Hints:
Layout: E1 11-22, E2 25-33, H1 39-51, H2 65-76, H3 80-84, H4 88-103
Antiparallel strand pairs: 1-2
Amino acid sequence: MAETKKETKMRNEYKLYKEVEFEGKKYSSLDLDFDSLTGSDLEEATIEVSQMGDANTMMFTESSKLYQAAICARAAKVPVQLIRKLHPKDYTGVTIQAYAFLTN
Length: 104
C-alpha cells in the first residue's frame, strides 16, 4: 500500500508576545504564509543572509536563525529587519515555525 503524506497548510497568524513598532507601523501579529513561498524566495533568502555576513548559512541553511528569520520575513511579507527586532520569545516562536516548514 502506498503511503501518503498528510498535507499540512503552513499559514497562520502569529500573535506577538510583545507588540513591535517598525518604520512607524505597530505590529501585534504576523501573518506567516509559508505556502505562498517559492524556490526563488528560498534562494533570495540565502543570498540576503550571506550578504548580512552569516558565513554558516551556506553550509547549514535550515538551522541558521538568520536564514529562518529571512524566510519568516518573506512569508509575512515584511522586511527581515522587522523580524530581527522582535522580542526574543517572538523571534524564537516564528523561527521555529520556519524551521518546521523547511524540514517537513
